[in-house]
Amino acid sequence: MFERFTKEARIAVVVAQEEARLLNHPRIGAEHLLLAITTRTGAPGTGTLARLGITPDACRAAVRTPDSLDEEDAEALRHLGIDLDAVRASAETAFGPGALDRPPSAPPRGWLRRGSTSKPQKPHIPFNTSAKQALERSLREALERKDNRIGTEHVLLGITALDDLSTAGLLRSLGTTPRDLRAGVLEDLRAVA
């Protein structure tokens, strides 16, 4: 399928892997694809993201803290005898201020060396279900539009077609919805045509 991707779309997939690695996430998700596309200035669909206020920094911050607990979650945990403020204070006492806000430290350099002359190998990061579905859906989006190639705009449309609460929550935290993002991308594609 990747042979049908445009250069920009391929770069976005590689950048998604790097973003997941930098955030110390074990899998590449749809959120990493979205984040990667925000970094591709001038790629199809990025104008829609910019107009909606979805910047790389805002997206990275939202991806960095997915599923952050709100007051309702904290209250539910209090009923179980878990005080989030006490947990945070204990972690900061043991590991320093902001210990829960930063990713774990990186493994030592060269931890996967193959022989003395090779460079450190970066571990493979697999796609999670949402990323796989978004990429598969991007192919369908391109076919429905009768486009020969799969571009970043199709990947965005694939992300908006996901039926998962995590992606919808991420977009909500960025001030939009899957429906609004989809409408914006389609509107921009019509304007270009």
Automatic annotation (TrEMBL):
Keywords: Hydrolase, Protease, Repeat. SUPFAM superfamilies: Double Clp-N motif. GO terms for biological process: proteolysis. It comes from the Bacteria. Residues 2-192 form the Clp R domain. GO terms for molecular function: peptidase activity. This is Clp protease N-terminal domain-containing protein. It comes from Streptomyces luteireticuli. The lineage of its organism: Bacteria, Bacillati, Actinomycetota, Actinomycetes, Kitasatosporales.
